[in-house]
Structures are given as C-alpha cells and as structure tokens.
Specification:
By secondary structure, this protein is mainly α. The chain has 10 helices and no strands.
Amino acid sequence: MKQLRLTYPSILVFGGLLVAWEFFVRLAEVPLFLLPTPSQIALRFVSDFSLLAEHLLVTLGEIALGFVLALMSAFLIALAIFYNKTVERVFYPIIIFLQNMPLFALAPLLKLWLGFTIWPKVTVAAIIAFFPIVVNTVDGLRATDPDLIDLLKIFGASKRQILQKVQLPSALPFIFSGARVGITLSVVGAVIGEWVGAQAGLGYVMLRANATLKTDLVFAAIFALALLGVVLFGLLTLLERWALPWRRLQ
C-alpha cells in the first residue's frame, strides 16, 4: 500500500503529460503521420493487439536468451575478477571498452557473422546487459564484511565455504540491482538487433510501420516495449523480495 501511494505522483504527472499531448496535437492540427494523439495510439494498440502480441513474444524470447547469457557470463567473469587481480587488470579495461562501443556499429557485423538467425539479436541483448551485472556483482562480493570473513577463516572455512555462506548472500542485493538494470537494457539491445535485420519482433514492426507512415503503430509498438520492460523489471523486483526476505524490513 505504501509503494502504491508513492506511485500516485508519477501516475498524475504521466496522465497530465498525456492530456497535454492530446490537446496540443488536436489544437495544432498536427497530421497523424507526424504525431498521433495518445487516444489514436491506444486505438491502434487495441486494433492491432494480436499483431503486437505475436511479435512481442519473438522479442521476449530474444530478451530472455540474451539476459540469461549475460547473467551467467557476468557472474563467472565477476568471480574471476574478484579472486584474481591479474584477470581484473587484463579484462576490466576490455569490459569497459566493449561497453562504450556503439551497438549500432556492432550489430551489422554480428548479423554478418551469425547470419539471419535469432543469435545476432540475442548477442546484442547480452552485450548491453552484461556490464551492469558484472560491475554490481564485483562490487557486491567486495562489500562483504571483512571481519566476518576473518572469523570464518579462524574456524577453518575454505574459500568455497566463505563464498557460499557469506560473500554470495552479501552480494545478492548488488546482483539483483545489476540484473534489474540489465533486463531493461536487454530490451533495448534486442530491438537494436531487430532494426539491423529481422523478420519478426517489435523492432521489425516499428521499421515496417515507419516505412508506411503508420506512426500510431510505431508508438503502439514503443508502448508495448515499455510495458514489457516494466513487467520484467517488476518480476525481478518480486524475485528479489522472495529471495531476500530480510530486505523487506529495511
């Protein structure tokens, strides 16, 4: 109930912006192909719901595969960075360099290398989601109370036991934070991959609609993507609340 009350200002502001958008477009008589009204976008969303849902499932599959790939690889590399200073000195600058590469330049190359399959889109989604997960995981592992680690060492605990009993539980809030950022970025990555070359997906719908001046359909696809990102973010938040029940009391 408290969280619902906190969202009221956002709902009011968002609703006010939609109303202002509606009135501005109608009063200024802006053509539909330039900027549709929210009501026109809503009508298009309802009328083409089956089309949007069909292509949303394709994009969701790309996002899911890319996110899982990013999560697994980021976790393993974060462990290597945490335990080995040489790995950190060698790979951390490379990770930062790759994060700052323009994905629009990389996506065509992935399409050339991997062909017209799902994997170029999955790879772009994984690359863009990888960085926040690996950085947050490393920070979480390093945030463990050193006194607690020293205590376990006194009792003869191995590195594996310390990792399982102390470091991983301590790092979980950081990992979830990185995962929430990563899942929303993977939505962007999948769409970028679809823009470069795809036969299905919401990014493909946006390109086709834009080419035929169906701007209301473009906005409807954007709304579907935004809604998908919010739902995925919310699911990870719920998973975090279930996995870390003590966080609810903070």
